[in-house]
Design brief:
This protein is mainly beta. The protein is 13% helix and 41% strand.
């Protein structure tokens, strides 16, 4: 699908769409075969467990707040204005331990089947079911880890 010159307005998604992914809100902002961008709101204490994308590079631009990360086995944090780069095939996870909602702009390239995945897991309540379905779309989840960045020191 080709890019169309236009503006996706603040607080709006393409065609009025938004997805509830385990309590997080994803709002699609741009979709072509080459890339897919979405605004994400992470309520307090929400997270995306360790996973890997077989076919996409993924990026996070933190708009407001702080996201704790597990990126290729290393723990770190990204704050407002930071860009996180997660190349395909590299395990990653993100956690909101900040005590307030965090907002970010995510994008992936190429799009692959991510849009179909988000449509399919919208409003699913079971993380296990989400992980199972995601594997059908080239996103593979690993066993959960602690959401606290200081847990690495304690061996958690």
């Amino acid at each position: 699908m080709p890019e169309i010159p236009d503006i996706t307005r603040a607080q709006a998604g393409l065609d009025g769409v938004s997805w509830n992914i385990l309590g997080q809100v994803y709002v699609p902002k741009q979709i072509t075969d080459e890339s897919f961008a979405w605004h994400a709101t992470f309520p307090e204490e929400t997270f995306v467990p360790p996973h890997v994308h077989a076919d996409q590079d993924e990026y996070i631009f933190v708009l407001d707040g702080r996201i704790d990360l597990l990126l290729d086995g290393r723990r770190s944090s990204a704050g407002t204005g930071d860009l996180v780069r997660m190349p395909r095939g590299i395990p990653h996870a993100f956690f909101n331990n900040s005590g307030k909602a965090v907002t970010a702009l995510f994008w992936a390239a190429p799009t692959g089947r991510l849009v179909e995945l988000y449509q399919r897991i919208h409003n699913m309540s079971s993380p296990g079911e989400v992980a199972q379905v995601a594997s059908e779309f080239g996103v593979h989840f690993f066993p959960p880890v602690s959401s606290r960045p200081d847990a690495a020191a304690s061996g958690a």
